[in-house]
Amino acid sequence: MSLSERNFARRIDLTSLQLFVAVCELGSIGRAAEREFIAASAVSKRLAELESVLGTALLYRHSRGVDLTPAGQSLLHHARSVLFGLEKMQGELSEYTDGVRGHVRVHASISAVVQFLPEDLGAFVGRHEHVKIDLEEHLSSEVMRAVQEGAADLGICNTAGGTGGLQTQPYREDELVLVATQGHPLLQQTAPIAFADALDFDHVGLHANSSIYRAMQQAATVAGRTVRLRIQVAGLDAMARMIDNGLGVGVMPRRAFELMARATGRLAAAPLSDSWARRRIELVARDFSTLPVTARLLVEHLRPAA
Q1: What tens digit of pLDDT does each residue of 253-302 get?
Q2: Using CA atoms, how far apart are residues 176 and 253, in angstroms rounded to an integer?
Q3: What is the sign, positive or negative, of the torsion defined by CA atoms of 283, 288, 290, 296?
Q4: Residue 296 CA to its chain's centroid (Å)
C-alpha cells in the first residue's frame, strides 16, 4: 500500500460511513439523525467532512431530502461492503467469547410472523439468552429489498415473485384457505373451493402489495373476473374481525385462521383447490456462508422446522 493509500484509509471515518449509509437508506439527513440518535447538524458536518476527504460531492441536497450523485452511488456500494465485512468479523470473533452474543436483524412477512415465528424465535432465545433479535414485519417484496440493501441480515418470506439473486433456504410451507362466517353458502360443499367461485361475493383483502392480494388478483384475471374488494386491511387480525362482522369473505393462511378463529368462534374455513394456495416460506440472505455467527445459529435453528 502506498503512502497516499494509507493516508486515505486513515482519513475515512467508519462512523461517517455508517451515517452516510443511513442517509442514503432513508433519503433524509433528519430521518437518519433520528434513527442514529444524533443531531442533524452533526450528521451534516460528518457528511461534509467525508466529501472533503474524497474531494467530490456525494449528495444532491434539496427541500425534500437528498439524492445520490454518481460518486455517492459508488461510495454507497463500497461502504455497505466495508460495513458488512466488519459485521462478519465481529460475528466470527464473537465465537471466542463466553457464550454467543450479538444481535440479528430479521425482516419477515406477516404470514411468517403470525403463524410460526413467535414459537420458533422464543425457543431460540431460550437457548441463546444473550442474542438479541430485531424483528420487523414487512411485505415479502420489502423483506427481500431490505436483505439486498443490507438493512436486514435475514429475511423470512414468500419468494414466489423471484429472489433478485438472493440465496434461499427452506423454512416452512403454508396453505391458504377461504374464510367466512359459519353457514356461508361457499362453505356448504365438502370439496375444496375454487377461488373463482368466491368472486361472486364481497372480499376483505390485505394490502395491495401483499403476496396474497397479488395472487388473488392474478387468479381473478385468469378467470376473466375482478375481485369485489369491499375493504382492505393491514393485518390478518383485522381481516378476521371484518369477516366476523359480515363485511365479506377473505383468504388467509390456515394456521393464522386457526389462531384468529379462537377469539370469536363464529368463523369457518375451507381449503382452496387452486395451486397458488400452497406456498413456501423461505429464509433469504445475501450469502448464508458469510452471515455473522449469531445469524448462522438462527438459520440452523429455523431450518429443521422445514
Answers
A1: 999 898 888 777 789 999 999 999 999 999 999 999 888 888 999 999 99
A2: 4
A3: positive
A4: 18
| Per-residue pLDDT tens over the stretch 32-81 | 899 889 998 999 999 999 898 888 999 899 888 889 999 989 998 888 88
What residues are paired with 157 via a beta bridge?
Answer: 282
DSSP character string of 128-174 = -TTEEEEEEE--HHHHHHHHHHTS-SEEEEE-TT--TT-EEEEEEEE
- Structure-block grid coordinates of residue 86: 466488519
The letter for the amino acid at 72 is G
- Give whole-number Cα distances, 187 to 30, 193, 197, in Å: 52, 8, 11
Residue with the three cell numbers 429472489: 163
Q: Provide φ and ψ at 64, rounded to 5°.
A: -90, -10
Q: How far apart are CA 245 and CA 242, in angstroms?
A: 5
DSSP assignment of 30-92, as one string?
HHHHHHHTS-HHHHHHHHHHHHHHHTS--EEEETTEEEE-HHHHHHHHHHHHHHHHHHHHHHH
**Could you give all domains of the chain from N- to C-terminal order, each with its CATH number?**
3-91 (1.10.10.10), 100-172+280-305 (3.40.190.10), 174-278 (3.40.190.10)
* CA angle 22–45–9, rounded 5-degree value: 75
Rounded Cα gap, residues 244 and 255, in angstroms: 17
Per-residue CA distances from 291 to 4, 50, 189 (Å): 33, 28, 49
This model's pTM is above 0.85: no
Residues 6+ apart with CB under 8 A from 98: none
Residue type (1 letter), 193: I
